[in-house]
Amino acid sequence: MPSIKEGHYSVVVIPQEAWENIIKTLDELKDKVERLMAQKEDEWLDSKTACEYLGVSMRQFQKYRDERRIAFSQFGRKVYVKRSDIDDFLDKHRIKSRYE
Fold it and tell me: Which of 57, 56, 82 minimizes the C-alpha distance to 71?
């Protein structure tokens, strides 16, 4: 396929039905990506994964929970947190740059 030089354009003609199929496929892909992103946002993480995500020790994570800085669920000795709650925690503690 020849390269397009600045100022030179090519026109491609495709049947209407093919164009509509392309648009339909792109809309379906967009919906799937949005669902996956929402699903990942509300994903439950165990303590170890949450610590890795935050970059803190288990003790520091325990302190955040003791101080109720991060919402969590506990079943017996197992602790779980939502990824979205960790993201909210990080956003609340974000220090803006001088250019914002």
Answer: 82
Which residue segment(s) compose the domain that 55 sits in? Answer: 43-92
Token readout for 81 is 């947190």
Q: Closest Cα to residue 47, out of 66, 67, 62?
A: 62
The tens digit of pLDDT for each residue in 27-39 reads 999 988 887 777 6
Residue 16 lies in a domain: no
Give 45-65 pLDDT, tens digit per residue.
999 999 999 999 999 999 999
3-state secondary structure the chain: CCCCCCCCCCCCCCCHHHHHHHHHHHHHHHHHHHHHHHHHHCCEEEHHHHHHHHCCCHHHHHHHHHCCCCCCEEECCEEEEEHHHHHHHHHHCCCCCCCC
Residue 24, both tokens: 């339909």
Q: What is the CATH number of the domain that holds 86?
A: 1.10.10
